[in-house]
Amino acid sequence: MKNLRFTLPEIRAAYAAGARVADVVQEAVRRADGDTQQSGVWITRIPADALAARVKALDSLDAAARAKMPLFGMPCAIKDNMDLAGYETTAACPAYAYRPKETAFAVRRLEAAGAVIVGKTNMDQFATGTAGLRSPYGTPRSVFGRDYVSGGSSSGSAVVVGAGIVPFALGSDTAGSGRIPAAFNNIVGLKPTRGIISCAGVVPCNRSIDCVSPMAHTVEDAMEVLDALAEMDPADIYSRVRVSIPARAGGFTFAVPKAADLEFFGDTENAQMFADAVATMERIGGKKIEIDFTPFRDGGALLYGAGFIAERVVDLGAFIEAHEAECHPNVVKLILGNKDRKATEVFAGQHKLEALKREVAGLFAGADFLLAPTSPIQSTAAEVEADPIALPWKFSFYTGFGNILDLAAFAVPAGINKRGLPFGVQLVGPMFTEARMAPVASAFMKAAGVVTGAPA
Prior knowledge:
It contains 17 helices and 11 strands. Helices cover about 40% and strands about 15% of the residues.
């Protein structure tokens, strides 16, 4: 069991060979307890007696009952902005902590599918941040070294998957919070079409565009989690029915930003890594076209540069005003600094956004998806602390537009650069194209020779 690589097929093979749920969960707990390279990864660990009761109930099920549970006996983790009945939800702010009576819809779906939640993971406070350093519970770091940031805001969830503690975890993604940490920890981050996984019971960041983001070692595993969670939820006003758009016949076409639009902020190694990724995508049969990246970039800029940022004030502003000294100063600055946005700014932003959506739809008429870097750079914690606003913004240069333009995306590993750090790319497509992009994303990883997770 100690040598088991935690992916869903390997765990299923262990069960088929006679392993008990108790054995697998015990191994996940052992790995969590023994991870001395990390601090602050967990905010809440599920107590041994509660885990034992859950494991006993699953181990007692017969084969027919197990077959109805697509994630039977799979240990996992959830981000601590998601409610789990009986356990505190903190959103990485102790003053905000509350103990919900009801579990978040997506987490209930996990449990109904047979998964075993072993803990709630650390995060950037109120899901506001892309580096993973804005938490009083400690700062998870990349599995590639304590000097490097883990990425945020789903920092802990990415690390526990990258470290091989659990086969998958749930994060959330508003502007890249599920994709950037996936890239920095060399795993897969799926940002599904917003609304197909309910956000009921998830502390909002930007409520209208938030989404739950599965993180795993393989595209197939991430899609299995999506399949288990996706269901219309009347309790979430932004929930919608999932539609599956099949692949086009005759191969695939992918778009890339034209050369003048690519930005790596001076990181020439990652620029070469992206060029290699484009070549790999062509090698597996893709036809490349170059497009104007401007509407995507302008869409991302709207999220922070127009009235849309004021949405965070609606859900969190009153609390932060009352508890300013107990909140992270950069979170306070971001949210309270936007409390006086004018309604005219919001409507002007909405008009521009609808025009950008139409322009982007036209670009996708000739391509199945956009291939772009996930993050153009990766930085040390010291570098981020020296430049805590501008540098994390650079991480989201290629991710910020995903939800506001109503797109779907896979962040997948693309290899290790010469500095020994992971580099990742995104496949970004129109809404509901997860199933169309998944086989290509998987084929890309195989062709690139990717080995996910922490370095050997």
